[in-house]
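no rush on this but wanted to send it before i forget. what follows is a protein written twice so to speak, once as letters and once as structure tokens for the fold. mainly i need to know what kind of three dimensional shape the backbone takes. thanks a lot i owe you, the record is right below.
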Amino acid sequence: MILINEQLREFCESPGVDHVSAGRHSQKPSQNQGVVRDTSEVDLAPDQAAIAVERNDCPKCDAPAGCPCRTRGGKTATKYHTARFILVPALREELDILVPEDRGPGRPWKPGPPVEAAPAAPAAEPIRIGYARCSTAQQELQSQLDALEPLCKRIFHEKISTRVKTRPKLEEALKLAYDIKEVAPDQEVILTVHELKRLARNAAELMTLSGQLQAAGVQLELLTGPLSGIYDPNGMGAMFFAVLAAAAQIERNYIREKTLEGQVTAAAKGNHGGRPKVIDDDMLLFARALKDRGVPVPEIAKKLTIKTGKNAGQHPSVASVYRALAEAEESAAPSGPEIIAPRQPTRADLTGPGIGTTNEVVDTLVEQAGDGTNDVVAALLAQARSEGEGA
């Protein structure tokens, strides 16, 4: 638990956390300020805050009640540990609480006088952690922030698609909620979003998230939509999480069907989507004419200019020109039936005296043509031999 408390403190103090507040929580309390702000509309002076904190034992440094927190080196800490001051409901949302000067911060630690046991803490206001998201840079995010700011102390927002499995700001919001529940199990923590699809777009992902919220005891709040409200993942809330998952899956399938219908309609009109070609038909015709004249391909690339897209006005790469010319040559090649060349006659080596059609010569030719590779020659030789025998 000590490690978790230290991580929670570092996480709350890190500049990377997106912190959007409603007004009076927007600045970090300094040592010169006269009061410590809290969420219960009660202003505590620094001495009052210190007294309230020191009524509890410190879970991190084991300082007993009535004593300030101490460091590992045996000195009085300059700030109370986060795991200790969040035990006070009025201070749970503060970033840090300073140790008063009369406690001797930075000097050797000494135990203080005993104090009365802390009274039972009243029910604290729930801590709402907001999360806002949109898919692309062109989409509008401010409407979500405007709806979350009056309710949430901290708001995490990002512009990223739900198709991306890792969403950093969502993980930071969940980590903060889980850490608060671990160090203060009785504190009610709510993850607030504008609408359901900002968390997930399919049943599997939403059910995984609901399982994590259920294990940590974190509630989910939806500000808009047909199922707006606060849902506890325990008990009857588990049924609502299942309904939310089914609704998210149905909505996702509907969006996908409409997208596919739009693509089919656009394709019927000749718009097949995708990015435009770097080398269009006019550029290809010009490039082929230059190549036929013997112009090198690198010189051809310098004479071409891209007309559309983010690279408009630039020259295409040499590789793109090579690829376009090769594809044009392949498409221009004839694709007719295969032409079978006539068989070449078998060469016969004649041996012996004379070159007539004697029986010996004919027998030699027949033997050389007997492999069946040239049926025409074999038939002519057989006919010649029969005519020779008849003569």
Summary: The longest helix spans residues 237-268. The beta strands are 127-134, 154-159, 189-193, 219-222, 229-231. The longest strand covers residues 127-134. Residues 343 and 374 are 8 Å apart (CA to CA).
